[in-house]
């Protein structure tokens, strides 16, 4: 049983629930100078492979930490939320903010198709730029789809910077 989880990344910036810009895959967003901006650095789409043991036991995990998000000086205390679009999701995918500068990580978030925006980083300091690395964790157990089906998940993960 082998599976692959592909993660496409997307960023959205908005202030007072007004969407200013929508980013393309690992792109930098254009927004007015007074707006909050969220940028992403990384090496392209993330690919994680999961292959649980046929003998059962703990879930098999694969991780990637090659993505970094950065934000400019915000006008108010802010937060970063995360959501995903992954029709037909088979495997579990988690995201967590690590090595956060000028914000508080909210812990590991399970990324499920159709989920609402969920806090990833909170208490981003007003008037301070900051950054965080994003750790993705894909997980599979023996009960998940088998290698004969050739299943893989594709997630479009969206990060949003908004006032808290």
Give your account of this protein's structure.
The structure is a single chain. With 164 residues, this protein is an all-beta fold. The chain has one domain (3-163): Immunoglobulin-like, CATH 2.60.40. It has no helices and twelve strands. The protein has strands at residues 3-15, 18-22, 38-41, 46-50, 60-71, 78-85, 92-101, 104-105, 109-111, 118-124, 130-140, 152-163. A hairpin with a 2-residue loop joins strand 1 and strand 2. The radius of gyration is 17 Å and the shape is elongated. The termini are far apart. Mean pLDDT is 74; it is low at 9-34.
Write the layout of secondary structure elements.
Blueprint: E1 3-15, E2 18-22, E3 38-41, E4 46-50, E5 60-71, E6 78-85, E7 92-101, E8 104-105, E9 109-111, E10 118-124, E11 130-140, E12 152-163
Which features does this protein show?
164 residues; mainly beta; Immunoglobulin-like; seven-stranded mixed β-sheet; five-stranded antiparallel β-sheet; elongated
Summary of the model, kept short:
The protein is an all-beta fold and 164 residues long.
Instruction: Give the tally of β-strands.
Output: 12
Report helical residue fraction.
Answer: under 10%
Which term fits the overall shape? Answer: elongated
Structural class: mainly beta
Q: Average pLDDT value? A: 74
Low-confidence stretches: 9-34
Report how far apart the termini are: 42 Å
CATH fold description:
Immunoglobulin-like
């Amino acid at each position: 049983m082998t599976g692959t989880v592909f993660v496409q990344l997307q960023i959205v910036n908005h202030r007072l629930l007004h969407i200013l810009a929508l980013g393309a895959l690992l792109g930098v967003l254009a927004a007015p100078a007074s707006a909050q901006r969220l940028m992403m650095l990384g090496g392209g789409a993330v690919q994680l492979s999961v292959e649980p043991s046929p003998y059962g036991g703990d879930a098999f995990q694969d991780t990637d930490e090659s993505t970094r998000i950065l934000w400019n000086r915000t006008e108010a205390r802010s937060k970063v939320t995360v959501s995903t679009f992954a029709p037909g999701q088979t495997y579990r995918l988690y995201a967590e903010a690590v090595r956060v500068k000028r914000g508080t990580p909210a812990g590991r978030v399970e990324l499920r198709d159709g989920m609402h925006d969920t806090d990833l980083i909170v208490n981003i300091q007003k008037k301070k730029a900051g950054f965080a690395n994003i750790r993705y964790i894909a997980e599979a157990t023996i009960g998940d789809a088998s290698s004969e089906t050739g299943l893989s998940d594709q997630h479009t993960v969206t990060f949003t910077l908004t006032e808290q």
